[in-house]
Amino acid sequence: MRSAIENRVSRRKFEKKPVTALEKENIVSLIYQLNEVSGLTMEFKEDGSGAFGKLRKSYGLFTNVRSLILMKGKKDDKDLKEKIGYYGEDLVLAITDLGLGTCWVGGTFDKNELPIDSGEELICVVVVGKVEAPSLTEKMVRSVIHRKVKAMEERIISDRPLPQWVQNGMKAVLFAPSAMNTQKVMFKYENNILSAQIADDYSMDLIDLGIAKKHFEIEAGGKFELGNGGRRYL
Ligand SMILES: Cc1cc2nc3c(=O)[nH]c(=O)nc-3n(C[C@H](O)[C@H](O)[C@H](O)COP(=O)(O)O)c2cc1C
C-alpha cells in the first residue's frame, strides 16, 4: 500500500518553527496543479493562526497552528464538497510524503478570520506544519484506543465474495480520515459494479465521500463518477 496512506494520522500539535521556503514552494505548486485539474481554488496561507487563536472556537485542541490550506472553490460548483475531499486528500498525502503533519478541520476554527472572494465558498481547512515523529508509544496508544477502525465488512455490501482488487481498494479506504471518525462512506459491489455512497445527513459527509473514493482509486485503480452513489469505471 502507498506508504502515505498507512503513515498519515491527524496531527494537532505542531512545532513552533514554520514550514521551510522549499516545503512551502512544494505545497503551493501541488495546489496549483490540483486547482488546474479540478477547478477548485484551494490556497496556501502561510500564517492562518488567527483562525485558531481564540480558545472559544478551537477548543484548545490544536497547538501552534500556523500554516493552513483554505479548502475552497466556486459557490456554484455542485460537487464542491466531494471535490474538496477528493483532490484535498491528494494534497494531504503528498504533504505527508514531505514529512509534515496535517489535519482536516471542518468546524473548530474561526471562519471570519479567513476572508475569501464573494463567488467562493470555504468548505474547511487543512492545517499543515512541522511535527515530531510520533513516538512508538504514541502510535501504540493510538492504534489500541483512539482510532477505532471499522472492519471491511462494515463498509461494503456485496452479492458475492470480494475479488482481490476490491479488497485492496477497501483496505486503503479503512485508512481514510473522516469527520469525527464516523467512517460512514459505504461501498456496494453488486452485479460487478462498484459504487460509493454516504447517508449525507451531516455537513462534512460529502467531503468524506471524496476522500474515500480517492483512497480506493490510489490502491485499486479505476475512477469513480462524481456524485453520491457514483460508480467506478476503468
Ligand atoms: C472532513 C473532515 C473534517 C474534520 N474536522 C475535524 C475538526 O474539526 N477537528 C479535529 O480535531 N479533527 C477533525 N477531523 C479529523 C478526524 O477527526 C480524523 O480524521 C479521524 O478521527 C480519524 O483519525 P486519523 O485522521 O488520525 O486517521 C476532520 C476530518 C475530516 C475528514
Figure out the total of helices: 7
Number of strands: 9
**N-C termini distance:** 20 Å
- Alpha-carbon Rg, integer: 18 Å
Q: Give the helix level as a range of percent.
A: 25-40%
Helix and strand composition category: alpha+beta
Order of helices and strands: HHEHEHEEHEHEEHEE
List bound small molecules.
Answer: flavin mononucleotide
On the 0 to 100 scale, the average pLDDT is 93
Total number of domains? 2
Determine the oligomeric state from the structure.
single chain
- CATH class category of the largest domain: Alpha Beta
Structure description:
There is one protein chain. With about 230 residues, the chain is α+β, with helices and mostly antiparallel strands. It has two domains: about 5-130, 3-Layer(aba) Sandwich (NADH Oxidase), CATH 3.40.109; about 150-220, NADH Oxidase, CATH 3.40.109.30. The chain is about 35% helix and about 20% strand. The chain has seven helices and nine strands, in the order H-H-E-H-E-H-E-E-H-E-H-E-E-H-E-E. Strands 1-2-4-3 form a four-stranded antiparallel sheet. A three-stranded mixed sheet has the order 5-6-7, covered by helices on one side. The protein has a two-stranded antiparallel sheet with strand order 8-9. The longest helix is centred in the N-terminal third of the chain and has 18 residues, at about 20-40. The mean pLDDT is about 95. Bound molecules: flavin mononucleotide. Flavin mononucleotide binds near residues 124, 178 and 208.
